[in-house]
Amino acid sequence: MSNPLSPRTIELVKSTVPALSARGSDITTVMYGKLFQDDHIRALFNHSNQGDNGSQVHALSAALIAYAQNIDKLDALVPVVERIAHKHIGYHILPEHYDYVARALLAAIEEVLAPDITQEVLEAWGEAYWFLADILINREADIRTTLENSKGGWNGWRKFKITAKQPESDVITSFTLSPVDGLPVLAHRPGQYLTLRLKLEDGRTIKRNYSISCAPNNDHYRISVKLEPNGQGGSRFLHETAQIGDVIDLTPPAGDFFLPDEPERPVVLLSAGVGLTPMVSMAETIGAHYPDIETYYVHGALNSRTHAMDKHVRQVAKQHGKMFVATFYSDPTNDDLCGKTHDQDGYISPDWLSANTPFHNADFFLCGPKPFLRTMVYALAKRGVETDRIHYEFFGPTDENIAA
User: Fold this and answer.
1) Domain 158-250: what homologous superfamily?
2) Is 369 exposed, middle or buried (0-12, 13-18, 19+ CB in 10 A)?
3) Is the peptide bond prior to 371 cis by the omega test (within 30 degrees of 0)?
4) Quick check: pTM over 0.85?
5) 201: annotated active-site residue
6) Which of 38, 230, 255, 332 has the least C-beta neighbours within 10 A?
7) CA distance linking residue 311 with residue 321, whole number of Å
8) Residue of 91, 110, 140, 393 marked active site
9) What are the residue boundaries of the structural domains of the chain, listed by start?
10) Among 98, 129, 193, 297, which one carries the catalytic annotation?
């Protein structure tokens, strides 16, 4: 990635790293407060991640620090740019929205860092912001063009109907979503997610991301959603209110976490909790199209009451012939029996993975809560798994280095 920024701009932006490290979350909190004064901009965001303690505040702060630190070596930011671009596709962020963010961000930097911030530094940050914004805008335009030109593709919001609602465990329910217009849908890449726009009974409209839990096809999508009783409405609305026949708005599948188009190495699908959803999509895809790919589906759950889609995954594995399933229960019920309802008591461990999977030549795909990812990604890397063979998806914004 070429860097047209002047040496002076780079110097000034890098000089703000200590201040950003100390006050970054204050800056992003003020920025969002200014940004959300405009109702149509406020409506673009997932507000379950906002607020004083919201993870998005910390995620953006971390992104600003990373940008300032790496502004002279921008190749390090390529993965972040890709992830952000896909999020913007999901939330239907358009080029005209970037100006609102620029004004709010620069005003927040000036307000929080006053009186130590100078006009020259503010101008450097303005230049740096628009340089990165142009990269994102161009990348998002490329993604949208690809989506629109693909079979079943579309841009923006499209209406889908709930055509099936299937309980998978005490806490997880699957929803099949079919297009209202009856036309084909874009075949997603296994591991990607959908963004849903939901109108709640109290009149609020919210947006939520959910991983697709079925193999790619041109007919429908399936999402498998965990009920979060203390959440802000998305999962509760789907579990408790949404019915077969209801219509929901979706943007096209997005996300930079997915199975390669042509897997070349053994695959380990490693998940915890509802993190199994993209893994089921990958497992179904491997089962249908890659008979020679040795695959290990390793999943951790509390117990049989929370464990979803086990029979389905085992049937996929049986039909494939080279897919092996191992499940761990950390809190088995009195009715759970190791060797019958699950394969191992306790938690998935790096030692078990090393002894029971092709540890040093497989691609690892991980999804689950951040504590699970933090532990497993670090452990895999520490035991010699190359970073380019460790691929992971997490829930919510990236507000920390998972591998640290």
Assistant:
1) Translation factors (2.40.30.10)
2) middle
3) no
4) yes
5) no
6) 230
7) 15
8) 140
9) 7-149, 158-250, 267-394
10) 98
